Known about the structure:
The chain has 91 residues and is an all-alpha fold. Helices cover 66% and strands 0% of the residues.
Amino acid sequence: MQRWPEKEVFEERYLYSALISGVDMEQAIGRATRLLSSRPADSMRKLLVALGEIRMANPKSAATALQRIDLGDLTPGQRSPLRHHAGRRLR
């Protein structure tokens, strides 16, 4: 991510992959939270924070991160983990 620090889209993609695969969870959640704070209405960034919270077994924090998310902003693949976890942990 240091090669193109101004390209946040690359960081978002890296964090999505890291959070899905469980790599560097604590660092990835911190970076995702920082990205979200710079653009709090961004659905992809809300998803990143929510995925991290789901992986860390914090369902209430995940539900908070998902509030007012616009699923239309996400690709079908990005929505997939939400469907998987929605019935289990976010209730």
